[in-house]
Design a protein that fits this description.
Mean pLDDT: 92
Distance between the termini: 47 Å
Radius of gyration: 19 Å
Largest sheet: none
Strand content: under 5%
Structural class: mainly alpha
Oligomer: single chain
Shape: elongated
Length: 136
């Protein structure tokens, strides 16, 4: 899960760099313009970076952060696909489109890895021996 989290996080950060070029704050009508965009990115990047720490250290909150990062990756694709279908001109360069598609791929893979990890944890829990208290 560490690799898929890192990949998704990297794609999201690359997309935000690209979004600054395309002035994405105008697409979303963010209050404060570029300043609002920077505040959003401060929060979003802090979330995914601190989440990466949780995933690497395998803390109890790792699955929460992995789910958030995966959702951000998938949502990035869905939102920008909607903009493209609506005829918006932004993000139509090949690398811009590739980064957005890779956000979807990374988010999907991260969810897959998260599900596999949770299934493995359940299997381990089921295999643990049960101890009975005898009446002796």
């Amino acid at each position: 899960m560490t690799r898929s989290y890192f990949f998704t996080m990297l794609c999201l950060i690359l997309h935000q760099i690209d979004a600054a070029y395309w002035q994405e704050w105008e697409m979303f009508y963010l209050p404060g313009g570029v300043q609002g965009f920077l505040v959003f990115n401060l929060a979003a990047i802090a979330l995914v970076l601190s989440g990466y720490r949780h995933v690497v250290l395998a803390t109890a909150r790792a699955s929460f952060y992995a789910t958030c990062c995966a959702a951000l990756g998938i949502a990035t694709f869905v939102i920008h696909a909607g903009f493209a279908l609506a005829g918006r001109e932004q993000f139509h360069l090949p690398l811009s489109m590739a980064i957005i598609a890779l956000c979807l791929v990374g988010g999907g893979r991260l969810l897959w890895d998260l599900r596999r990890q949770q299934a493995a944890a359940w299997l381990v829990a089921l295999r643990m021996p049960c101890y009975r208290v005898s009446g002796k």
